[in-house]
Amino acid sequence: MKKIYNSTIISILTKVLILLVVAKALSLVVLWYLPSEGVELNVKENYQPKYQRVDFKNMIQQVKKEIINKPVNSVESVGTNITDMILSGLYGTKSSGFIIIALKAKPKNTEIIAVGEKYNGYILKSIAPMSAILQKNGKEYVLYLEKQESKTTSHITKVQTDDVFDSKREVTREDIATYAKNPKEMWKDISIVEVKDGKNIKGFKVTKINEKSKFAKLGLKVSDVIIKANNVKLNSYKDALDIYKNIDKLDTIQIVVIRNNQEMELVYEIN
Question: Which residues form a coiled coil (predicted)?
Answer without folding.
Answer: none
